[in-house]
Predict the 3D structure of the following.
Amino acid sequence: MSRSVHRRSANRGSINRSSVGDSKAILSKTTKAGTASAEFSADQLVRKALSAVRSKGTVSRRSPLMERSHFGTTIFIASCDLDMRMGRFTAYVFQDLIHKGYILAIAYGDIHNAKELYTRLHSSCVTSETLRGCDCDCSKQLEGALKRIADRKAGILFYLIQEGRGVGYVAKARDRMLVQASLDELSTFEAYAEMGLKKDYRNYEGIASIVHLLGVKAPFVVLTNNPDKVSALRALGVKVKRIETIEFDAGPYNLAYLKSKAQSGHALTKPALAQLRRAIPPEKVVPFNPYALKEGARFIYCASYFLPMKPVDGEVVVSRKHFEEAFQETDISEYQQGSKALIREVSELDRDRVLIRMDRKNFSRYRKDPQHAEVVDLVTTPYWFRVHVYYDVVSGQDFVVLTHGESEGRKQKRAPLVRVHSESIFDRFPLNDVENRDKLKQSARMIVRNGHGLIVLLYNDGRGAGFGAHATDRMFRERGVTTSSDETYDKLGIAYDSRDYEAAMMLIAHHVPARRIQMIMNNPHSLVLKQEYAMALHRQRLQIDRWIFLENE
């Protein structure tokens, strides 16, 4: 680490050179007065006090279990292993003591003795990393950076909870609403300006504190397309050896966004070369000013826009009209024959819809051939969900509801399928254990097949206890301190489940005025454990036509 980091860090701390000098003077006076301990000199007392707060290099997998080092405004919370498709990483979890945001240092290899560290500063994106949205390149950059770090044997990915370039999800959602309402004539950065926002509010100061706590000395090879991130690191005194870009092909659903990033100074070349038609939302998007709900005034309705969600396991659902248009000039049998067939299954659904299952292994043969463009577009049709974003004045949290079809109508023959889904920050990474991610995928596919339904996303890591508690639970179980999450929660003094189900059920009732639903849950046992869940359903007068348990599907 450079000297400038040490100078700046020393100035930020509660003990600096001037305060040390003052302390010596005070200690000298008190010693003469006979009130200081005769056992230590003034210099010895100062050195003893300083040694107690030295924190450089104190965070590692060998750190004492209950030690929580602190430097600047950053405190260490927990560490645990993350088994990913690229290999085993170590997650060091930190939190800012002022704004309470989490920063994860996802480390691979020997970060202390490496000659250089491949590094990425990555800001969170719930829509692509949790909800499988394909209207940006964030999840691809996340996975691409982790793969390159693993390939190079040593590095750190800093994951910062700074949604929407630091403006938060509410502002990000309003940006998407304005851009979609303009049919992409308005860029993300122009939408920000219209809302009175700068183009970037992200803060990277915590990175320098984490580098100090981890005792990292090697220079960084920064994986980024954004020159502003490199400037921010250098301003913090972090040594940058070189920059490597990390770019992926544009798609029809993120082309406009990537072009706007390129125009704003990002090192992107592929959007300008892409021969693609920009996709537009399936329905008109109408902007509105935020307002509080009449029934449930704790919620301020802030934004509504469409999210194109990646299809699950190559299965798409399209209208019969769309299906027939794609095969006007081509016989579908040409795509169904032989070992290299593109389409493996076609079946009829109600409401003039068609289900198509694609063979993903053979997709690459057709993807870039212009003569197959219509059929390729058909079999990659996303699951269109409308995103509704609420700000809760009670908890200060954002609530996200995704609706598909006409869940809000009163004349549906079948009740909408509903899933209350709790996400974990760790599940945003490409883990080998994808159980919770698969639950979301399975629920989305069932809702699309049904024709209408909704998902309420709860930012309730650790069953509502928070991400810090969840990370601590993982650390305790890995170290053998506890054998289960229930045992950890007893040690932490946390109830089994502290999620706000009342808020979730209020939003479901708002979106389904008929209050008849089919509820998707993990298994019958989870319903028994979640008493507050059942009580909230009852209080909101929600009638369950059918319980659907994912373990049986």
Observations:
- The mean pLDDT is 89.
- The chain has four domains: 3-53, 70-273, 291-310+382-460+499-552, 311-377.
- The chain is about 35% helix and 25% strand.
- The longest strand covers residues 74-84.
